[in-house]
Design a protein that fits this description.
- The structure holds two protein chains of two kinds.
- In chain A, helix 3 runs parallel beside helix 6.
- The longest helix of chain A has 25 residues.
- Chain A has six helices and no strands.
- Chain A is 72% helix and 0% strand.
- Chain A has a domain of 106 residues.
- Chain A is globular and about 60 Å long.
- By secondary structure, chain A is an all-alpha fold.
- Chain B has a domain of 181 residues.
- The termini of chain B are close together.
- In chain B, helix 1 packs antiparallel against helix 4 and helix 13 packs antiparallel against helix 16.
- The longest helix of chain B is centred in the middle third of the chain and has 32 residues.
- Chain B contains 19 helices and three strands.
- Classes of the chains: A mainly alpha, B mainly alpha.
- At the A-B interface, helix 6 of A face helix 1, strand 2, helix 4, helix 5 and helix 6 of B.
């Protein structure tokens, strides 16, 4: 229980940091940590499917894409960023919590509990055995992301 | 065989950067077009034979070891695969000349191939999470393609599209998660079977609402359409054609139809909601199109309006309604791709998309003008072109179902459609030639060749509509209306191991 609370706290903390950091690199790394905590939580809650995807895709591959993209951008000193996120985010977060609690309260008891065997197996079994074909989709998303970076950061020709 | 529809474009996309190092233009052109020729040949020559006895299931294996993965092809997915391959081939032929001035052709083709792989994957899977995955494959590639020109407007349109599309994906994913929680399964069959035994109307209603919101956004149905009039005109013309002609239909209409007819079952309430969404999109977008001065923006609003017709037909849920909806889906894919490609030819020759600056271009660009007339009349529903028959079938289905008010609105919206398409003709191609365009020339060979083929297809599908409907559309509509139960129950399916 203590471990779960620590992980949940870390998840919220790093998620908030990902939004509030003005440095994109720090924001991307915070997001990766948040995903890692979420992935571990999924494993602890006996959901290796989701844990495997969360860690492999969000914490791993997406972070690599973010960092590659950030590395391709240049620092522009004169860009003025809005500080609205500093006050909009807490308001949005509070609103979300209120709505979330209200919706969950109305759903509890109305959604019947599913009688399913607890998911078992290791990371490998979840990824390679049960959801094999999802890997093709993941490869597609990653390829699309890589080519998107290549397309958006390509050098324009002189005659354009 | 079905796996190649996903694997071939993905593999070639991965190889294109290397090919691009050897040859910047010619090899990427040849390789990409060859992929679409192969896919089209497979869909047309082998597909129908494979599903002649009913839906075919392809179990995947890896060096003889069976994998826990399969793809399903029925007449509906085959119709979509053939449409995607045909339109993509013609768009890719058009791109040979058109994309020359954008630079980095290999990257462009790679993204286009990935988008097509995503669409092909989406129509072949029977698992809700995989629907989401392939939706994202196509979407991520399309965000980059919309911004491909790298100008301010394109980047802004792409960002807007990304934000709204991400919201749509979030709703779809949330709904999938709730369904997984309710039924313990992600496959169409498992979820459909689970829902039959459940007494959870509130939760199922919530999932349906989220799916309508998500897929409605992807299909750009009014009131979820805000992103499309920016994104589609901003993209390079071949991508506008692919987005309007294919992507909104596959990631919006196809996914919506599959989920609601194959998984949930079309209830009277759902049917009414879809019909109202369809009719509102049809009328509102047609009225908005009338006020546009930008050629491509007018076409974008027209896409929303025509998707309204498709959703109206499918939402009606009768065999004739579904038939009309599917036929209009194919017809609109051809005609709208043709019109967007022609708008690209005009923009490339004149440098503008403003209809008021054009005038008399028909004298300088006779092929473009001629094919634009064919595309416009086809979408407006003028006989004997393909759009006439599909609209007629939808209207007849509405009348047959006693939905007179919807039928009347569909006829009136068609008149509005004809009106704004005649405006395009008058402002861009007819009248006195604007002196500015005295030196304008007809578009290059591959651009005109692909639009001529699309125009001929619009005419041919209209003249041979009976043959087209019997051989392609009717089996697809039957697969949706009745064969779906066979897919769900796992009965009467032929298994292939690949």
């Amino acid at each position: 229980m203590v471990i779960q609370i620590v992980l949940l706290g870390g998840l919220v903390l790093f998620s908030a940091a990902a939004i509030l950091f003005r440095d994109l690199l720090k924001a991307a790394i915070s997001l990766a940590f948040a995903s890692l905590f979420l992935g571990i939580l999924f494993f602890l809650m006996k959901a290796p499917y989701v844990g495997a995807f969360e860690i492999s895709v969000v914490a791993g591959l997406i972070t690599v894409l973010f960092i590659v993209t950030i590395a391709l951008t240049k620092m522009e000193g004169n860009v003025r960023e809005s500080r609205a996120a500093l006050w909009i985010f807490p308001i949005f977060f509070a609103l979300f919590l209120i709505i979330d609690i209200a919706v969950m309260k109305s759903l509890v008891g109305k959604i019947p509990a599913v009688e399913s065997a607890p998911e078992s197996g290791t990371f490998g079994q979840a990824l390679w055995g049960l959801r094999t074909f999802d890997l093709v989709g993941q490869i597609g998303v990653i390829l699309a992301g890589v080519f998107a970076v290549l397309a958006l950061f390509r050098k324009r020709r002189k005659d354009e | 065989m079905a796996f190649w529809f996903i694997a071939l474009p993905l593999v070639v996309a991965g190889l294109l950067p290397l090919v691009g190092k050897v040859s910047k233009k010619v090899l990427p052109d040849i390789l990409t077009n060859l992929v679409f020729v192969v896919l089209l040949a497979m869909a047309v020559s082998q597909g129908r034979g494979l599903i002649a006895q009913g839906p075919a299931v392809f179990d995947l294996s890896w060096f003889g070891e069976p994998l826990n993965a399969s793809l399903t092809m029925d007449a509906f997915s085959l119709l979509m695969l053939a449409t995607i391959s045909l339109v993509s081939l013609l768009i890719s032929l058009f791109s040979i000349d058109y994309m020359d001035h954008y630079g980095s052709k290999a990257t462009f083709y790679a993204l286009f191939l990935i988008m097509v792989a995503g669409m092909n994957g989406l129509v072949l899977v029977t698992d809700l999470f995989q629907i989401y995955l392939f939706l994202e494959v196509a979407a991520v590639a399309s965000y980059a393609l919309v911004a491909y020109g790298l100008e301010h407007d394109e980047l802004e349109a792409s960002f807007k599209y990304l934000m709204l599309s991400a919201a749509a994906s979030a709703f779809i994913l949330l709904s999938i998660a709730v369904l997984f929680g309710l039924t313990g399964s992600l496959s169409f069959a498992g979820v459909a079977a689970g829902l039959k035994t459940l007494e959870a109307k509130f939760a199922v209603g919530l999932c349906s609402a989220f799916f309508i919101l998500g897929f409605g956004l992807k299909a750009a149905l009014v009131p979820f359409h805000a992103w499309l009039p920016d994104a589609h005109p901003s993209a390079p013309a071949p991508i506008s054609a692919a987005l309007s002609g294919l992507l909104i239909k596959v990631s919006g209409v196809y996914a919506l139809t599959r989920v609601f007819i194959s998984v949930f079952g079309l209830t009277p309430v759902l049917s009414t909601v879809l019909m109202y969404l369809g009719v509102i999109s049809m009328v509102v977008a047609a009225l908005l199109a009338l006020g546009q001065k930008d050629f491509k923006r007018m076409l974008a609003y027209s896409s929303i309006s025509q998707v309204g017709y498709i959703v109206l037909g499918i939402g009606l849920g009768t065999p004739l309604g579904i038939l009309g909806g599917l036929f209009h889906l194919v017809n609109h894919a051809l005609a709208k791709s043709l019109l967007f490609l022609n708008s690209g030819s005009v923009q490339m020759s004149t440098g503008t998309r403003n209809l008021q600056e054009m005038g008399g271009l028909g004298k300088r660009m006779p092929v473009t003008a001629g094919t634009t007339i064919v595309g416009s009349l086809a979408i407006a529903g003028v006989p004997p072109l393909n759009g006439f028959w599909s609209k007629l079938i939808i209207i007849l289905a509405l009348v047959q179902a006693g939905q007179w008010a919807f039928a009347l609105v569909a006829v009136l919206a068609s008149v509005l459609t004809l009106w704004y398409y005649l405006l395009i003709q008058r402002q861009a191609f007819f009248g006195k030639l604007n002196e500015k365009w005295a030196s304008v020339r007809e578009a290059p060979f591959w651009m005109t060749a692909s639009t001529v083929v699309l125009a001929l297809l619009c005419v041919a599908l209209g003249i041979f509509f009976s043959l087209t409907v019997k051989s392609w559309i009717e089996p697809a509509a039957d697969a949706l209306a009745s064969g779906v139960r066979a897919v769900l129950a796992g009965l009467g399916m032929i298994n292939f191991v690949i």
